[in-house]
Structures are given as C-alpha cells and as structure tokens.
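[scheduler] slot 2 assigned
[scheduler] job type: sequence-to-structure, two independent chains
[scheduler] chain ordering preserved from manifest
[runner] begin chain α
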Amino acid sequence: MRAQSFISGLFLLIWVQFNGQNFKFKGAGIYGAGITTAHHYKNNLSTPAIIDTVTGSRYYYPQTHISKEYINWSAGGFAEFLLFKKILWQTELEYANKGAREMEILDRKELRSGSYGLNKYTYIQWNNYYKSFYPLAYGMWYWMAGVRLEYLFKKSAGVFVPWSANMKSIWFSGDLGIGYEMPIFEKYHLFVEGHWNPDIIPQTQDYLKIRSRSYEVRLGVVYRLRRKRVDDCNAPVYKGPAY
C-alpha cells in the first residue's frame, strides 16, 4: 500500500508541475553506465522461528545478511527543463541490470553451498530528478536528487528462490547523485556522474524484508542549445584587430 501511495503521489507531483510551470528546454543526452548492486535481507525476528525437530534449536531462514556485489551495466537517455532560477528537472528512461551474488544456504543450520549464485533483475526505469549547477574550473559541477520508478522487465532467480523470484513488478527507489559537465564542442558537453540508488522502503515477503542498493557511474554526452550572444544580430560585428 505504501508503494502504491508513493507512486500515485509522484504522478500527482509531476502533473502539478506540468500545469503550474512554464518549462524551458535546456538539453537532452544519452549515457552508458557501470552499476553494482547488493541486496540486504533482514529476517523479522518477531515472526515465530522455525524449530529443528531433532535438536529443538530455533533457526531463521534465510538469515539476516548482505549479499555480495553484482556488477553489470545500464544505459539511458534524458531531457532537462528549467523549473526555477537555478533548479532543473531531469526526466529519463533507463535500461538497468541489477541483482545480487548470493551463497545458497542448504539447510537451516547455515550449511552453505561453497559457491555464489546469481539473482538477476532487468529493469526499465523512469527516473526524475531535481538538478542544480555550479561553476567549477572548465565546466560545471551539479547535484541531483530524485526518485526512480522501476518496472521489472525480466528476472532470473537462482538463490533463495521462494523470495527472490517474487520481487515486485512495479517498485520505486530513491536516488542521490553528483556530476561534472564540460563542453567538448559548441553544443555538445561531456559529463560524468556518480549515483547512490537505495530502496526507500523494503519489499516485505513473509517474515523477510529485502532492500536493494546500487551504485552507478555514468559517462555520457548532452546536447545544449547555444546561448544567444549580445552580438547575435544582422549588424556588422567588430572582432578585434587579430581577426
């Protein structure tokens, strides 16, 4: 219910912005990225434990743990619009490969398989950020803060299958990012970004709470309209003695 309420609120916020602002197009770009993801499993200990019928010991399965990193790639495209004096809105579509490397627990006494298996999830994401620029050296640095709306396009779950195979088809996550942009041609700029992308709330299944967390490094190109100069007119322009 919380997820549905949050997603509805996100759509409402964007609708209000569209109807209350005169957006000015600022640029559009594409990027490729390296992404590393891990999952945090937390066993809800308030749920009755599983009792071993031989020893009488109490076990919780799967145990609370953080998976190993799963490294893959993502790619996307975006457009930017001016909202306020220094605040921009960036909206984008992204194809992202996420997942986790897990060592299967073979029984409730934590006997492990000895090798890692993969839980892989491919998402098509609609990401929306607030964004603000500040001058630095040859270019501009900027911060980003927003939300990613995620559609689970395909999955391959091989470890902890009763839970990992039942991740939500529609979900959302938060995002904080920082980047640097510099011109390479008159209308084209190169940028590099780093993103921290955690689940805002966990996915709850039975007595487990599962959170996903990703780090993403992007490299891309953005197209920007050339700023008008004061001498952009039909009158002759003096360009100095060395012209």
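[runner] end chain α
[runner] begin chain β
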Amino acid sequence: MRLYSFPYISEKPTISMKISRLLSLLLMGFFFACRPATQEKSDLPTLKTYFDHTNKEDVLTGGVRMIPIETPKGTFKVWTKRVGNNPRMKLLLLHGGPGANHAYFEAFDSFLPQEGIEYYYYDQLGSALSEKPKDSTLWTIEHFVEEVEQVRQALDLDKDNFYILGHSWGGILGIEYALKYQENLKGLIISNMMSSIPAYVDYAQNVLGPQFGKEVYDELMALENAKEYDNPRYLELIYEHHYPQHVIRFPLDAWPEPVSRGFEGLNADLYVYMQGVSEFGVTEGATLADWDRSEELGKITVPTLTIGAEFDTMDPKHMEEMAEKLPKGSYLNCPQGSHFAMYDDQQAYFKGVIQFIKEVNGVE
C-alpha cells in the first residue's frame, strides 16, 4: 500500500496552509474508511486466544468430542478433536481409505497453529477411535455425507467459517458433501483425488504402471488378473515399485510415524467393500468402482482448491482440469510430491493450503 507524505515546509505555516493540510487529512481518512473490509492480521487470534478453552465443552478432554451420529441402524459415536480457536477459520479434515483414520494428518500440527487456523481431526464411522458397527449397509457415500453434516452441526460450523479438506477418499466425500450441502461451506479443498474413479484406474494402468518397466508391470498385472492379492510377490512388487514412488516418497523403513500408524489402523473390511483388494486402482465390484462426478463439478460454486502432485497416484493434469471446471476453482501443484504430498512436498503443500484459506477469508 502506498502512503502519501507531505513535503517538508521550512517557513512558518499560514492559516490557509493549516486548513489545506486539515482538508487533505480528512480526505485521506474518508478514502481509507471506504475501502472494502478485510480481516487484518490484528483480527487473528493471539497465542493466548488461539489456545483458550473458555466456554468450550471439550476443555476436560483437550479438544476431543465423541459425536453421536444418527443412522437407520441406530446411533453411533464418532471421534473428533479440535486444535485451536478461531471463529473465522475452521477446517474439518476428511481422511482417506475408506477406513483409514486421522493419524496421518498430524503433520498439520507443524503448520496451521501459527497461522491461526482452527482445525478438527475426525475419524469417520468404522475407523480407528470411532465406533465400528459391522454393518455394510452403512458403508455408502450417502451415509458418510450425512455423517459429515451431523458432525458439522455438532461442531457449530457454518458458511461463515467452515472449510473442508478431503484427502484421497476424503476428496470424494468432500465433493459429494459440497454437491448436497455447499450452502454450509465457506471453502473446499480436494487433496490428491480425481473426480472420476474410471479415469484414475485408467491413469494407473496406462501411465503409472508402464513406468515400472515391462517385466515388472506384466508380472504385477498377471498377479492382479489371477486375484493373488495376498501373494507375497504381489506385495513385494507394490512396496518396491509403487509405494515409494507414488504413495509417499520415503523408503519403507523411513515412513513418518503418523503415516505408518494411519496404515496400521486401517479397517480392512470397510476398505475392501468400498475400494476393493487391489493396491493399484479400484477393484471391479467395489462400491466406488464407477464413481464419477466430473460433469457435475460446475455445480460447486464455493471457492475450491484442487491439489495435485507430480508423482501422485492421481493424474495431476486431471486435477488441474478439475479446477478449470469449478466456477471458483484454483489449482495447487506439488512438484516434489506424491499421494501424501503433505509429507514429501510439505512446503509447497502447506503454503498453498494456508494461502487459499486466508485468501477466501480476506486475510492479508
């Protein structure tokens, strides 16, 4: 912002000069008063207010709440945990899987608190610290959309402060939630998830797979076609060629602890039912196999950020095209990242996420 200054006057000011200066100051005051209001940095929480639990019902649990979710099969509780306190910016994190858990989001602790963003860890029904009813009729997109809406209501999130970040399967859930309930959203972040499962499978089989080399890829596909997903050789090929290149770009023995914990806590029954048994795409017959919302992205009118990564299991070009289809879409590319770009390209990932939220919120 450019500020105007007055020239130094050496002689004693006259009455007319004093009046002229006064009028100038009044005009400047009028100009700044008429500028569009934005949330200045002074409006952000202080360290004290950000960690203030006053009048919070989760003070005894350090931010943890078990939220009852009503379903046709009864009421079940899901686990959430609040970090921070900012009435203007509240981010709900939707984990992947389906059937994974919040653990791998713990890297957010290193970036969001100092930016004043309040955020919520959340284990979806059937995952980790939430209840796990063994009823596959609850394992539907429709159920999880309604579950997110009930969580939103319980946490008192609304269109003036409510952001969603959905990663992988959480990105599907975020898209579906926005298509039904976007009037409750302020902003949406679709992280490392394409808008079409068939397009994702095609990318895996025709782009990523051949990069392994013909011999490796042919063997991998032979095992998949024979449905030998438990064959030690199949897992060996996946762990050697797929995971460290496209899932998270760390050696297997050097995975960040929250990522390992997230994989260890996976609800395998839920995962297989919706995603399938393949580690290289979505298995035919799984409930997500035909999911595709590419032609409906134009209906999502809230500000939306799509995040892609150069080495992702998802096609980064597809995710850039998603941003172009979204009326208020923008795209973040993580040039060093893979599917877990919040770990292997942290600086690009979090800089983009924080910038998006603050820009939507009008923070300078």
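[runner] end chain β
[qc] chain β: Residues 245 and 297 are 29 Å apart (CA to CA).
[scheduler] slot 2 released
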